Amino acid sequence: MSGEVKKSSKTQENVILIGQKPVMNYVTATLVQFNGGSPEVILKARGKAITRAVDTAEILRNRFLKDVKVKGVQIGSEAITIEGQTKNVSTVEIVLSK
Hints:
Helix 1 crosses helix 2. The longest helix has 15 residues, at 50-64. This protein has a single domain (5-97), classed as Alba-like domain (Translation Initiation Factor IF3), CATH 3.30.110.20. It is an alpha+beta fold. The chain is 29% helix and 42% strand.
């Protein structure tokens, strides 16, 4: 997963994909989305990046935007095939709203 900011074409919600970059990069990307007028931002992560997504949400809520609330959290898993072996990878979506 990358740290790119993408807009979903069907619902026009802002989605930030959490990857390997430092947490503050994702906090900044989320701040840009909220300051740009977005009422809601979704942080998506899988595997080891899940902790980075949680850290991003908490840093944003506790240090930068006190009025941002966690609207919802969805968890799941994806089957990924690596070198002929199928493994399940955990996923999380954290919905933040102003």
